[in-house]
Design goal:
By secondary structure, the protein is mainly β. Among the domains are: 207 residues, lipopolysaccharide transport protein A fold (Sandwich); 174 residues, no CATH class. It is built from 4 helices and 49 strands. β27 and β28 form a beta hairpin.
Length: 794
Amino acid sequence: MAVALAWATGAAHAQGIDGPGFRAPIAPGPGTEFAPVRRGNAGLQPVVIDADVIFGRPDLDTTAVGKVEFRRMPLTLKADRIDYTFADDLVRAKGNVSVEREGNKFTGPELQLHVERFEGYFLSPSYTFAANNSGGSAQRFDFIDDKRAIAIGATYTTCEPEDPAWILQTRRVRLDFEENEGIAEGAVVKFYGVPILAFPVLSFPLSDARKSGWLPPTINFDTKSGFAVAVPYYWNIAPNRDATITPVVFSRRGAGAETEFRYLEPNHRGVLQFDALPDDRLTGTTRWSTYLNQDGLIERKNWGAIDYGLDLQRASDDAYWKDFPHALPSLTPRLLPTDGHLSRRFDSDWGNTLAYVHVQKWQVLQDPDPASAIVAPYERAPQIGLSQRGRLSGGLEWRWETEVNRFINEDPTRLGGTRTHALGTLEWPWQPLGTPGWTITPRVTVNSAYYDYDQLLKVAGQPDQITTARAGRTIPTYALDSAWVFERDAKAFGRDFTQTLEPRLLYVNTPYHDQSNLPNFDAAANDFNVTSVYADNPFSGIDRVADVHQVSAGVTTRFLERSTGAELLRLGAVQRVLLRDQRVTPDGIPITQRYSDLLLLGSTSLVPSWVFDTSVQYSAEQSRLVRSVVAARYNPGPYQTLSLAYSYNQNTTRQFDVGWQWPLNAAARDHAAATKIREQLGKEAAKSVSAPSTSGQCRGAWYSVGHVRYSRIDGRITDAIAGFEYDSGCWIARVVAERLSTGQTESTTRLLLQLELVGLSRLGSNPLQALRDNIPGYRLLRDERSSPFQTSTP
């Protein structure tokens, strides 16, 4: 059926053959050229006929016999005999008839066509399509006009036509290009002769445009819900709106539905998802989740353009993230946000100003095990702010913000309050040499905050009472930042490089201010790394400002390949030196150590096919490593990637991560090698290079895929995904098992089985997103191609 679509598309172009309008001085012999009459159609190409013998009557008919080739670019028609009648505008071709256009080829014993009306038939045509090496045949193909056609007994496959592993057979296919619809009757998909899908009526689009209809079913299995069968229905509401409604049945839980609605307007766009399980047999409750993402621009004459956004995620119960781990599109599945904002920008020559209102709330999915409980963050209801940044002609830059925040928390023991703060920075990036090679930036920052907060009042013999307290503070920070960039030409390993040397010094001085009596709504210690070591304040947020008096010093060198600019080697080191004790710390214990831990980093791709990356935090005081991440990746070619990483944290983490996609047999290695050659030569030069495992060549290539995370502290595999991919050339099978930890002693295991009929559709459960997310460098065995069945309708 899909071939009938492609055949009709190619045949529709044949109407450009010149018909009753050409005048030809008929002469016997090959190589006759007919000039078209220009009846208001001056762009028509001439028709050229080559044959052993050409004869006929001027303006009546023409006959060509023996190795006939009838050409009007870009279409070529070949046959043993071609008869053309001027009055009827009729072409009759018999004997080894073939039509070629843009790499697509159609062959059969007989073709009859009224060229201008595009009405006729092709008997027993076979066809092949260059785009994906697909093909098939039909008993008869009838052209009703240039917009409609009917194919009888059409087939389609991307396998070898002599003995296809899979084939789509139809009794009858009606094609309507004006309505962008094809309707197949009696459609059956057979896999090695066994029917695996059958549809009495199958509707499909005739272009890349979307079309309403049922999509192929998906089947999943996991240890929490058992088998799940889902059949999505796609609803093409309008060009800028669509919806997908998916009935789903879980063998252990019962029946439910998943829905998604999307829309796109010139100034607005949004996605709404809602999943529901009305009666979960395992819990006896109704389970649901919802996700809404909406953003856009509101334009009003008196108000200007107002930017807005809303991100909302909610679930019915605390265990939802465990039972349906892939249902919530959140990086933090136990912490679901409701986040809305409005903002208005005011730009002028002296600065860019932003006014905004923000509301942020959370749903925390807690675990019955107290050891797995998480602390709920404070909510902002609301956050109202104004910020501005600008630059004077002399290079002086400023930025400031002021906000009012109301903080609340679902934990009754964590009292809220209102904070008003102002944060301002004034700096002057100065280049003493007049070039970007050296920059000195003096900077002054002021952090001022005023609190109106709740606190517990404890009176002996009386119940605790909540009272309101007020406090405030203003803390300045002085900084001097100096950065250099030196370059020189270098030669190493037989290659030409540009080497850089990039030292940096940052001096920061912040006076001490006691903040122990002030609430902490949003401040936390920054991670200690090569970026945060150059921060003026080691805390994120507003509520804590550390009394640092320190110098951060570091140097980085990079080797850049001169011909391409690619970075092949990077080495760096940075350390912080305290000039006095730091009293404001995350745990309240003063820091007296003068020299911070030393941070070292390095990455290189000098060794062909290898990438090494490492970062190390070394404590001179303890004479040991405090934290390190070491990673290596081997990628010699397509479909060949192996990565290994080890993460170490002195007190919390000792973890191995291994990921891979690797060919297992000679056919897979040949496929990878041929793909690499094509990519190196480029698309045009590689047309003559054939990959051993491309469509139509069922060689049987095996690949192993997976990712394993092992915790040495827990002594167990925490997360894993592993499986196999089998590429026959015209179909691909994937068998993948995934294990996700949902607690110290809990996990969910999924089994994903997928059969991909190349050029047709994917059936079963889809593991591709999980493979992409977990395996660095993972590649699809086939490029994504549009298929009539991606939005098909049974």
